[in-house]
Amino acid sequence: MTKKVTITDLAKRANVSVTTVSQILNGKDDRFSEKTVKRVHQLQKEMGYAPDFNAQSLIRRSGHTIGVLVPNINNPFFSRFLRGIESVAMDNGYIPLIFGSNNNQKLESYYLFESIRRAADGMIIASAISDVSYIDNILNQNGIPYLLTDQAPITEGDKVDVNNYHGGEMLADYLIKKGHRDVTVVTDKQPTLNLHQRLVGFLDMFKRHQMAIPNERIIETDLTKLGGYHAAKSALATKPTAIFALNDEIAIGLYRGIHEAGLRIPDDISVVGYDDIDLAEYVTPTLTTIHQPAFEMGESAAKLILARIQDQKRAFQEVSLPIELIERNSVRDIRS
Amino acid sequence: MTKKVTITDLAKRANVSVTTVSQILNGKDDRFSEKTVKRVHQLQKEMGYAPDFNAQSLIRRSGHTIGVLVPNINNPFFSRFLRGIESVAMDNGYIPLIFGSNNNQKLESYYLFESIRRAADGMIIASAISDVSYIDNILNQNGIPYLLTDQAPITEGDKVDVNNYHGGEMLADYLIKKGHRDVTVVTDKQPTLNLHQRLVGFLDMFKRHQMAIPNERIIETDLTKLGGYHAAKSALATKPTAIFALNDEIAIGLYRGIHEAGLRIPDDISVVGYDDIDLAEYVTPTLTTIHQPAFEMGESAAKLILARIQDQKRAFQEVSLPIELIERNSVRDIRS
After folding, report:
1. Would you state the pLDDT for residue B60?
2. Is residue B30 part of a domain?
3. pLDDT > 90: percent of chain B
4. Model confidence over B290-333: pLDDT tens digits?
5. What residue ranges are annotated as transmembrane (chains A, B) (predicted)?
């Protein structure tokens, strides 16, 4: 039970009427003396008066809030993505309600309902583990627009597109040109659409070069550093000259496992990742990877959802963002 | 303008009265047939009906929300800390409203006000950059209890204590025993209280051994990987045998700078960090550091603030959590 500073408290201290304070704080200040206007604004800051949001949002049925669901705020890709969302949200007077589901379906469901209860105007959902149809059902019935970034929507919708298929192709092409044929892939147990496309692009490129990668060279694990670390043994058992980690977190886990096995990167084995998280430049050797514009992806997602909130009937938009192969020091050229 | 599923919609579909639905959802279901109770609960899930929070919170003046302000959600220490808060909050039907201030004072102030507007019942503030007296003023006037984790409160308050002074001492003692005398420290430009204590504990231990560390061996930078990377040159210029990085993020940045300078850790130079973020086990060599129980710190902070929300008059509590030196491979024994 908090007792907030009210507009009446402020008016009393300023020695003016509540109406005066209200008008001044709403920018209708031309009827008042400069001194009064200044005093009211100053007192607002000093006293920490914040207009009651719930009263406003009850009328408007808008919490000026965007619910954001990510699998793991510990992954630097998502912290950058969240920063992009935050920056656009703030410019528009919204705040993001950030939830990390930690791959826990119960938690995810709890957060979905809490977002609705707290009058979220829209949602951005990255890598949900629940069925898309479940999410669609819940949000649609509540008239809350949403945007999925890593999965295909049930129906047509706004989209932030980065060409994952092409990203996979680029990495495969790069490894092939460096002479790698015996390549092993470490991927997620339950890949979302974006990861799946990444994988298929990679595999297709090898196929096109008549070097199809057999199933036993595809290792499944969790999409984390620990997952990569645990997968290192099985990956090394396939005797590859190079490993493609479906994201940088896995790659960094592989680094650890490879070091512990007494092997050196890239002398004994090459590694490529995906995402270009900041750590990719801090590991030894620095990691060759695909740069994803995580911050811009967050910005675009926030812009699209805000536009959709303003006008639910507008035509669907697709924003396409470029990716780039960043060549660092984790791949050896093995053509002799 | 969202159009949420209402209790009337649900009652219509269930073919019962609004009162019936309300009573069933509030657990007063003994008057109704098992079939009706089951049907109402099932429809609630199917239709995604979530009771309107703002109506409730307007009456109770409680948003069942804890505002949480951290400097940087990109630092794994804070993501673990946030997970601890989240887990306790959820068990108590609260949600954390998470804000990363990114060392931007304007953003921090915006978030403070938004937390008040959104009826936060309490706040947990880690490493704020604003004046504590400013925060105290704003929150106190709004009757919102808060807990500072990295700074000294203005007045007495609840506390989550980890003994930073002792942590600094332990690292110094460890380095001294390994024969290090020429030690350089890389610290934050504007250290918060916890960092300051860490530093003083470290310096005091060297003084006690008649090996006081001169000022020119104390390098200031930002508390990030990039900060550590940028500080590497100046740190190496002081010709140390070991460097104490005030947190692991700085240590990882130093690793990069040290590698680029063509030196090897620990053969040419030793490094110790502080926090024991998960990465400390993934860098090469693995990093010797002080383990901070980040998850438990988050849990304790959440428990204390929830208890304070329930009873603003209860006696102040202090929870003391243990730290531990984790010896890995980044320090060389240089006693000959």
Report:
1. 47
2. yes
3. 56
4. 999 999 999 999 999 999 999 989 999 999 999 999 999 999 99
5. none
DSSP letter at B160? E
Contact between residue B294 and residue B134 where contact means Cβ atoms under 8 Å apart: no
B168 and B285 together in one domain: yes
Are A299 and A285 found together in one domain?
Answer: no
- B-contacting residues in A 156-175 (Cβ below 8 Å): none
Block mean pLDDT (10 aa), chain A, length 336: 74 88 81 89 81 53 83 86 91 88 81 82 83 84 87 79 95 98 95 92 98 97 95 98 97 97 97 96 96 96 95 92 97 94
Q: Are residues A243 and A299 in the same domain?
A: no
Is the distance from CB of A191 to CB of A246 less than 8 angstroms? yes
Measured CA to CA, the distance from residue A117 to residue A75 in angstroms comes to 28
Whether A282 has its CB under 8 Å from any CB of chain B: the answer is: yes
Note whether A128 and A209 are same-domain residues.
Answer: no
The complex's ipTM? 0.81
Task: Give Rg (Cα) of chain A.
Answer: 25
Interface of A with B in 290-319 (CB under 8 A): none
Structurally, chain A folds into a number of domains equal to 3
Q: Which of A256, A326, A257 is nearest to A286 (CA)?
A: A326
Q: Are residues A257 and A206 in the same domain?
A: yes
B246 and B222 Cβ atoms separated by less than 8 Å? no
Sorted by sequence, the CB contacts under 8 Å of residue B177 that are 6+ apart come out as none
Give the mean model confidence (pLDDT) for residues B149-173: 88
Q: Which of A240, A224, A223, A164 is nearest to A197 (CA)?
A: A164
Report chain B's mean pLDDT, rounded to a whole number.
Answer: 89
pLDDT tens per residue across span B95-129: 898 888 877 888 888 888 888 877 789 999 986 67
Mutate which: B2, B65, B111, B250, vs A, most A CBs within 10 A: B2
- Cβ of residue A263 closer than 8 Å to a chain B Cβ: no
Q: CA A291, A294, A299, A303 torsion: positive or negative? A: positive
Q: Is 80 exceeded by the pLDDT of residue B57?
A: no
Say yes or no to pLDDT of B79 above 60: yes
| Same-domain pairing of B300 and B153 | yes
Cis peptide before A285 (omega within 30 of 0): yes
The length of chain A, given as a count of residues: 336
CA B35 to chain centre: 47
**B103 — alpha (psi -120 to 50), left (phi > 0) or beta?**
left
Residues of the domain holding B45? 7-51
